[in-house]
Amino acid sequence: MNKIFLFEEWNKVIESCATADYHVAQSVYAQIVNIYTGDDRHHHGIKHIAHYITRLKDLFKVYQFNTLDMNKCIMGAFFHDIEYNAKKPSDMGNAISDEDLSAMYAVDSLKHIGFDDAFANDVSTSISLTAQHKPNESLDIDPLLQSVFIDADMSILGEEPFLDGIIVTGK
After folding, report:
1. Is the pTM of the predicted complex or chain greater than 0.85?
2. How far apart are CA 85 and CA 106, in angstroms?
3. Is pLDDT of 165 > 60?
4. Angular region, 133: left φ>0, alpha ψ -120 to 50, beta rest
5. Rounded distance between C-alpha atoms, residue 121 and residue 110, angstroms
6. Phi and psi angles of residue 42, each rounded to the nearest 5 degrees, phi first
7. Buried-most residue among 45, 69, 75, 153 (CB within 10 A)?
């Protein structure tokens, strides 16, 4: 069910972009699914992305945002953990966080699909917020939207998809 749900959500956003190249978008989607279904993903996998987007959609029912902002959040959810290494960047001598690497990946992918710079950059900025898990009021993105994006990411903690992985794997 997760992959069908995710495919439908992906396509809704792609269809909203008049300049999107559908074939490129489907190739990027296939890469995303391949990455999130890797054996090394633990709780940063496809179930987390499905949970994240489900939670975003639940929050969108409570807080009224425009379609463009909601689409940016959904794309942000797809890309926010695309770069994942269990070791901290400082452990590897790398000053760039997984979140910032994911944000860069998102910008490149979204521009390649055909989204404009503003859309891609707002998605990237939202992804970068997940590193500290707190809004940044100096940004041009609605602080409430930032909070919704961050809260939806963190909502997996303590829920069944997250706990199932811990109980089964012991990690």
Report:
1. yes
2. 17
3. no
4. left
5. 9
6. 45, -125
7. 75
